[in-house]
Amino acid sequence: MSSDTFGLELSFRTVSEAVKRKDDVLVVIVHWFLTKFGFRCVGLGDDKTLSGSENGSELLPTGWSDPETYSLRYVYDGNLFILRGVRADETLILNLLHTPDLNVSNLAVNVTEVVADINGTVEKMVPSHIGLIDRIRKELVEPVTKKISSEATTQTSSQATPRSEDIGSLREGYRDPLRVPIGVGGPGGPPRLDPFNYGRSDLDPLGVGGPGRGGLGGMLFDPFQRGRGMEPPGGLPRGRVPGARFDPIGPPGIGRPGRGFEPDPDHLPPPGYDDMFM
């Protein structure tokens, strides 16, 4: 026997005295596959509730082959499943019910064609047992267990990876005192500072945006420093702070060519203007 059917022969040995019909051979193979998949049998019947005191087992319970209709209860990943089997002419119809949502799978097997004997090796009893096992997996087990597996994977992923809104709330509630706010300086481009927040760089323990790093540096405010985003009002000499007591000579922005912002000599009083004898 291949490694894929490991334990199947032992399963038949443990129930050899209870196997009396060809239908029993099929049920033993289905039970073996369920336990290999992770199911545990918790008894007979079709009760759809769990008391919590059930002890799951890899063995078939006593009396499993006595009735004409098979009814076995299993637990898988905390969920209750019921395996039902009924004979219809030459076909054994098997159903696996997932009790929480009543999702059910079906497998129909022609007993006379599949089961050759009720005694001997697995190969002798069911020559096509490899193909039968593949059908059990695809038609009976996977349709009612894929949803459970996908839900478990989704829950694990959501617990391991915080959601974007959770990250946002954490960031919103936390303020790093050493973090330089956007627009104040730091790597990623030249600083774009608010002139009314001047002196922020003095509070920066890392010196980001300070003197020599493209920042403001110091507490001396010069709104006309290059790159500050402020230009002197028209006609005001550079270095003059708006609002300071300064009386420009002539209207701002108007001057003689070549004279820049210097006062017009024609506006100056003549020498000795305060001499009463002139």
Automatic annotation (TrEMBL):
GO terms for molecular function: endopeptidase inhibitor activity; proteasome binding. It comes from the Eukaryota. Residues 17-150 form the PI31 proteasome regulator N-terminal domain. InterPro entries: PI31-like (IPR045128), PI31_Prot_N (IPR021625). Keywords: Proteasome. Residues 163-172 have a biased composition (Basic and acidic residues). Residues 150-161 have a biased composition (Low complexity). Residues 147-172, 241-278 are annotated as: Disordered. Pfam families: PI31_Prot_N. One of its GO terms (biological process) is proteasome-mediated ubiquitin-dependent protein catabolic process. One of its GO terms (cellular component) is proteasome complex. Belongs to the proteasome inhibitor PI31 family. PANTHER family: PROTEASOME INHIBITOR (PTHR13266), PROTEASOME INHIBITOR PI31 SUBUNIT (PTHR13266:SF1). This is Proteasome inhibitor PI31 subunit. The lineage of its organism: Eukaryota, Metazoa, Ecdysozoa, Arthropoda, Hexapoda. The gene is LOC113212095.
